[in-house]
Specification:
The chain has 182 residues and is α/β, with parallel strands linked by helices. The protein has one domain: 2-Layer Sandwich (Nucleotidyltransferase, domain 5). The protein has six helices and five strands, in the order E-E-E-H-E-H-E-H-H-H-H. The chain is globular. The two termini are 35 Å apart.
């Protein structure tokens, strides 16, 4: 499964693409899409959309995931960030992709093991989970972390759907087959 992870921002939106096969992860590409700070808001949003559309067209992901952005102290900045996030959600959806959303704490917990990890810890774990990956920028590392988080959640969901992760069903199956219980 090819996963596109996005870390939205109005100045720059990080993106990362990985291939996930079971528990195996492989780095495909990563980078940032930037907008011109001097341009009008609508033009900046269009720049982000066009850049992300190019990423989707170039790497053909099967699914996407976007980090949920939390409120800033400045309401105007929060609103603009929310608009950039809307572009990050909309662009892959326009291409027919399902788009998941993850809180930063969930992403950090999935990648580092703690929901309170800092950016450096996330970047270090991304490098360990994707050997040989040259990360373009901190926002790209965050986007790769979002992709890794989504890959893990999809993989876990598939195991649950198959009944593999259900210990009660496994135990009942062993008992029915005469294999005992504990």
């Amino acid at each position: 499964m090819r996963v596109l992870g996005l870390d939205p921002g109005l100045r720059q939106t990080g993106w990362g693409v990985i291939d996930a096969e079971g528990n195996r992860l492989r780095h495909v590409a990563n980078g940032i899409v930037t907008s011109d700070r001097k341009a009008e808001l609508a033009e900046r949003l269009l720049q982000l959309h066009r850049g992300l559309a190019e990423v989707v067209a170039a790497h053909r992901p099967e699914t996407a995931a976007v980090e949920v952005t939390l409120a800033n102290k400045n309401p105007s900045s929060t609103l603009k960030l929310g608009m950039a996030r809307g572009i990050a959600l909309l662009t892959p959806a326009l291409d027919g992709l399902s788009v998941a959303e993850y809180l930063p704490m969930i992403v950090k917990k999935a990648v580092v093991g703690t929901g309170h990890a800092d950016k450096e810890q996330v970047a270090m774990m991304v490098a360990r989970l994707l050997p040989g990956c040259a990360v373009a920028a901190p926002d790209a590392a965050d986007a790769l972390a979002v992709a890794i988080c989504h890959a893990h959640h999809v993989s876990t969901g598939r195991r649950w759907d198959a009944g593999v992760a259900d210990p009660l069903a496994a135990r009942a199956g062993r008992q029915a087959a005469g294999g005992g219980g504990a």
